[in-house]
Specification:
globular, seven-stranded mixed sheet, 246 residues, 34% helix, alpha/beta, 8 helices, four-stranded antiparallel sheet
């Protein structure tokens, strides 16, 4: 029987799956086994559609909690708890000012490859991709390597922080090709407000460094943070802590 006072939260890309790839059946089965021991929650930066593409079309019903867009689109036992709106938080004028600047910046950016969909507007955040989300997996991999040296996303974020300081926004680099933009406090720690019933909250994520989209929840006072490098590493570390399969 699952412990009623412990929940384990997981990032998606790089933690449960290879970035943007479908989860391995072995990992999905493992998560269901874990639910027999503790409560399990998913907290991803992507919207519910993308998370469901990776974890299964019925994903929101298969975990105790599903937090899409950092919890700005929150579900418990498959039932919707709350939806937050970036449009309402910023206002149309500020939103338009921000979007216009981003598109102009991308247009002037000198990088090896550009494709399409440079801004993806979600309920509670914007996802910005200098290369464009329409790129192939091979192009994603190439951009990720290029960005490690060129620091395209980090430089972009620094400029936005300076230019739009008045909007009090947070910028979070995640995945291979993009970064998220959302109001302060709307990072992954947002989901913790729905978990008051739990005494112990574990979090597993790969981008736990400062500036990564797992950093705030990894460092939060209420969580026990664990850094992982792949879904296999996640499985190994969870097994060591909770004795799954032993």
């Amino acid at each position: 029987m699952a412990s009623k006072d412990t929940i384990v939260l997981f990032d998606v890309d790089g933690t449960l799956t290879v970035p943007r790839k479908t989860a391995e059946p072995e990992m999905l089965k493992f998560l269901q086994e874990l639910r027999k021991v503790v409560s399990v929650g998913i907290v991803g930066g992507s919207d519910l559609v993308k998370i469901s593409e990776q974890l299964g079309e019925n994903a929101k019903n298969e975990y105790d909690y599903m937090f899409a867009e950092n919890g700005l689109n929150a579900f418990k036992d498959g039932e919707l708890l709350e939806v937050q709106s970036l449009k309402s938080a910023l206002g149309e004028d500020n939103l338009k000012r921000l979007i216009n600047f981003i598109l102009h910046y991308v247009a002037d950016l000198d990088i090896p490859i550009k494709r399409g969909t440079f801004i993806e507007f979600r309920n509670g955040m914007m996802n910005v991709s200098p290369i464009g989300r329409n790129c192939s997996q091979e192009e994603r991999d190439e951009f990720e390597k290029f960005d490690e040296t060129a620091q395209v996303r980090s430089k972009f974020v620094s400029i936005l922080k300076e230019k739009f300081a008045d909007l009090k926004l947070t910028y979070s680099i995640g995945g291979q090709i993009s970064f998220d933009v959302f109001p302060e406090g709307w990072d992954k720690t947002y989901c913790l407000r729905f978990l008051e019933e739990y005494k112990t909250i574990h979090f597993f994520g790969d981008k736990t460094y400062k500036g990564g989209n797992d950093h705030e929840i990894f460092e939060a006072d209420r969580t026990i943070g664990h850094t992982v490098t792949s879904w296999q590493d996640t499985k190994k570390k969870v097994t060591e802590i909770f004795m799954i399969g032993k």
